[in-house]
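Q: Got a minute? One more chain.
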Amino acid sequence: MKTIRVFLLSVVAILLVGCGTSSTVPITGRKQNLLVSDEQVLSLSNQQYQQYIRQAKASTNTANTAMVKRVGQKLANAVVQYLTQNGMGADARSYAWEFNLVQDKQVNAFCMPGGKIVVFEGLLPVTKDEASLAIVLGHEIAHAVAKHSAERISNEYKSQYGNAILGVAAKAAGAKPGMQQLLAIGSSLGTQLWTSGFSRKQESEADRMGLVFAAMAGYDPHVAVTFWQRMAQMTGGGSSSLFADHPSDAKRMKDIQGWLPEAMKYYKGNGVITNKSIKTIHFK
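A: Always. Here it is, folded:
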């Protein structure tokens, strides 16, 4: 009976994973398996966003607020045009872009699924100019376009399935409580390493896509290097821990320099995207 139970749990987990939808990330061509729909993620994110906006204090600096909205909208227009011209019109129409600058000293910004973007005032002294701000906003927009939130939720489901099956299997095999606990700890650490590594992969992917999006919008992607140099001076280089969810600043700058030739193919320097400016990408 125990063997049958373990087998059934395994089958259920495989079926649940198999029921997900396959998706391809724009620009990078990476394949995804998502267990949650866009509608589910958008419903949840919109609730969280509205709750945050009600509590946040909007910036009183009209010039900076206008800059954030201007740069953000140029990026959004370029991204929507790219998606539409590359057969992803349905995705392009699903975004309701919104750009806000809030009173917060943190050096940060975030983008909710669906295109709701918030920039903290503390970020602007580090970006210094519109082009560097475009690099950050391009990165945040990339998280939404690449459906990273849906992917993280899906991976959390997969982790829960795996941990549950491991626990049942250990108990069915007659493992003592101490050994079961040790297995659970080991599984938890392994899951944390895997999710942290996956988070770093998502951050790197957003860096790469963000460079391209900034270039499409008419901003020179080369400014990303000097921006991250300024960030490195503030943070001391970032964490290189196995459990760090972001790549170190040194790795980031090295990767960005390697992606610049790709981004420059989209850079026209005037912020105007024409049909001839964007070539259809064929995923391998």
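A: Residues 83 and 92 are 6 Å apart (CA to CA).
Q: Perfect, thanks.
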